[in-house]
Write a structure and sequence with these properties.
single chain, 303 residues, alpha+beta, 9 strands, 13% strand, binds zinc ion
């Protein structure tokens, strides 16, 4: 069968998105409106993230034969801190993207401290991840997140893709502007934006029709997804992938410059792929924290 070269980027995006995008697409008919976030929702969000942090950290402690109680305590504290970071991003202020990200990174590090000897603080910026161990008094190590690089490359290979530098600077991730057709081809639905691990895509349609306030709301929503992917990698995938890499000589060499970044987002993507959009936990969190609602209004009236 003759295969047109111009199809390659779209097929690459489609494959890349199969597991990760369906739960991170913002439907076109429902841009989040203002709406403040009720205090009860904030408290519930912190509690849920504390439970998530505690559970994942305790599981790793159990696997590694380390004390589970210590893992539960630090995991819960880190989880709550990560939740607070996402809430700051959801507040959508001019510096909310970065300040929320930094609090979130601290949360990721604090949770992992529950199964480690020393505190290590991560900083995820697009496809790069720096890790700093304050006690070691050395410069941070910087590695490339392999999955994030491949997904960013796949999305950037769309003919319409170009970088939105302003939005990238706000969110701390790579933000690409793509045509609605390219994102639609990848996700199978009409969308304003979508997020893959390490990269956000916003559609031309969004730039053409949404107000600046709405665009910021969409960017905040997608940035929350970026942070969720970071947490899935740091809390679920990386500890397992690091064990895998340490098992062989090539892996050890590779592990000095690369983090795989595959297992966490893939596991969560698979576990939640059967749920409809409005019931995806990642979507519910992003909606609650940017619009004060659990999901878009039926039919969407805020466009
Ligand atoms: Zn979403």
């Amino acid at each position: 069968m003759h295969f047109r070269r111009s199809h390659v980027p779209r097929v690459a995006i489609l494959l890349a998105c199969t597991f990760t995008l369906p739960h991170a697409v913002l439907p076109a008919q429902a841009v989040p409106a203002g709406g403040s976030v009720p205090g009860s929702v904030r408290a519930q969000n912190l509690a849920l993230n504390a439970v998530l942090g505690a559970t994942t950290t305790a599981l790793h402690a159990w696997i590694a034969g380390r004390p589970v109680r210590r893992a539960l305590v630090w995991g819960a504290a880190g989880g709550a801190l990560a939740g607070a970071g996402r809430q700051i991003v959801g507040s959508r202020g001019d510096f909310a993207g970065w300040s929320g990200r930094l609090v979130h990174e601290a949360g990721l590090g604090v949770a992992r401290y529950g199964v480690a000897d020393t505190l290590e603080l991560p900083l995820h910026v697009g496809p790069l991840v720096a890790r700093w161990t304050p006690a070691r008094r050395r410069l941070p190590s910087v590695r490339v997140n392999l999955a994030n690089v491949l997904l960013t490359a796949a999305l950037a290979s769309a003919p319409s893709a170009r970088v939105d530098w302003g939005a990238s600077a706000w969110s701390g991730g790579v933000v690409l502007r793509v045509s609605s057709e390219d994102l639609g081809a990848a996700s199978g639905e009409e969308a304003w934006g979508g997020t893959l691990p390490g990269v956000i895509a916003l559609t031309d349609d969004l730039y053409a029709t949404a107000t600046a306030r709405q665009r910021r709301a969409v960017l905040a929503h997608e940035t929350i997804h970026l942070l969720q992917f970071d947490a899935q990698h740091d809390w679920i995938g990386r500890p397992l992938e690091a064990r895998l890499l340490r098992a062989g000589r090539i892996g050890r060499g590779l592990g000095r410059v690369v983090e795989l970044g595959i297992a966490g987002p893939l596991a969560v993507g698979l576990a939640t792929s059967g749920l409809p959009y409005e019931r995806q936990p990642a979507e519910r969190e992003a909606w609650w924290l940017t619009s004060g609602r659990a999901a878009p209004r039926p039919g969407g009236t805020t466009r």
